[in-house]
Structures are given as C-alpha cells and as structure tokens.
C-alpha cells in the first residue's frame, strides 16, 4: 500500500499529489492511503469514498466539532514541515506525492476512471455546466480565463503577474484569432470586480460568491473549449481532467495562433509534446 504523507500548497497541488498514485491503484488494483487530505475533500465524494483510497484522519464527528478543522489544519502544517516527521515517514516507507508528478505511466490509460473519481459533487458540476451552456447561447466558442494575481506579484519577481488590462488584451487577441467565430469568456478569479466594467469589448461572465467557489471555478474551466492563464497547477488541472486545450500566458505581449493551445497530459507536458518548466 502506498502511503502519501505530504500536503503541498493549495487544492490543485494536492490533486496533482494524489493523481499518479490513484492511477496506479486503478491500473494495478492496489490500495493507497492519504494521511493529510485537502480541506476541500468533501467536494470530491467519489475520491473520499473510493474503496481503494483510505483517509485515516477523516473523522467527520471530530472535524465538525468545535475547532476540529482548525486543529486538523494546524496538525497538517506542523507534521508536514517537520524534519523529524520527514525521517519517520521515510523510515516507514511513505511517499511524498509531490515527487510522483513525473510518474506518467498510467495517467492516460486510466483517464476516464480518474475523471469519475475526481469529479466534484453533482451540484458543483451542474452549476459549472449551466454556466458554460448559458455562455454557449451567445457564442460557439467558450474560453476560460484563469486570473491569478495576489501572490503572483512577488512569485518569481512578478514575472507572471498581469494587470486586468493585460488580461483584456489577451482576450481581445484570442477573439482576433477566432475572428470567424463568436467568442464568450468565463472568468475565474478570486478578486471582486464586475467583468463588464473591466473587459470592455469582450462578452464574459463569472460566478459571484458561491459555496466551494474555487472548485466551482476550477471545474467550470474544465468544461470550456479553451483555457488561458498564467503558469499554475490550477488551470493545468482543469485542462488535464477536462482534456481542454490550454495556453499559458508567458508575457504581456504574447500572441496566439491555433498551435498555442494543447491539452495537458501530465504535470510536465502538453499533448503536443511541449514540456513545461518546473517553476
């Protein structure tokens, strides 16, 4: 049994931490354990109740009692950032899932089953699909736009931080690329703004404050026709799990052509063979 003992970053880092091991279990009929699950785990009922994946610390009666969730998050941080626990996990033969991102052996052959296991709750998917269906009423091409700013102002010295006007220009260039088609945009962002006030000349929509907002945005991106966004495990997961062509935004003056877009097939590769640098 493979035991995943790390808990890197936010939700999509965690999903990429799990997926190679889940694919291996599907292909080889094995079992696995995830010690420190992401706090969004209830949004993924097929994963939480998967018969070959065991979550030993998932004790709902405790987590929802008093400071249960906060205590769990604190425990996760302390244990996964502790050299002594690192040595204990290594001695016990545990695996750091983040280091399995290059294990691509079973991802493509098990993709349909992975899509089922990592499908979020029905109400999340229903909202995601309804949003894209509504956008399709006005257009025949729906492009998901992942806007990430915040911490990107300092990440790699702000190399992939873009102003909202920069995103508007990206969107206008995509429209120009598909000038013969009607294009709508789905906006994924944790910032508060009205798309119509910011993205003049672009037909776009976004969700307001919704339960499970980050997962809802993520899986709405996964049912778009194309995705654009800065380097991120977030849009990368949406592209992979939905098999949606993605183009990373690498510079403010970036231009697009049809070859710019390709689905993600594993953490480090696009379907067209292009390799993704490990930022």
Notes on the structure:
- It contains 11 helices and 10 strands.
- The protein is an alpha/beta fold and 279 residues long.
- The protein folds into 2 domains: 2-117, no CATH class; 122-270, 3-Layer(aba) Sandwich (Rossmann fold).
- The two termini are 30 Å apart.
- The mean pLDDT is 95.
Summed up:
The protein folds into two domains: 2-117, no CATH class; 122-270, Rossmann fold (3-Layer(aba) Sandwich). The chain has helices at residues 11-28, 45-48, 60-63, 68-80, 83-91, 111-117, 122-136, 164-177, 195-198, 213-221, 233-242, and strands at residues 2-4, 32-34, 53-54, 141-146, 183-188, 204-205, 226-229, 246-248, 264-266, 269-270. The protein is an alpha/beta fold and 279 residues long.
What fraction of the residues are assigned to beta strands by DSSP? 5-15%
> What would you call the shape?
globular
Gap from first CA to last CA: 30 Å
CATH architecture of the largest domain: 3-Layer(aba) Sandwich
Q: How many domains?
A: 2
Structural class: alpha/beta
By CATH, the topology of the largest domain is Rossmann fold
What is the C-alpha radius of gyration, as a whole number of Å? 19 Å
Helix content: 25-40%
Placed side by side, the strands forming the largest sheet appear as 6-5-4-7-8
One letter per element, helices H and strands E, the order comes to EHEHEHHHHHEHEHEHEHEEE
Supply the CATH class of the largest domain.
Answer: Alpha Beta
Query: How many β-strands, per DSSP?
Result: 10
- Overall pLDDT: 95
Show unreliable segments: none
Main beta sheet: 5 strands, parallel
- Discrete helix count: 11
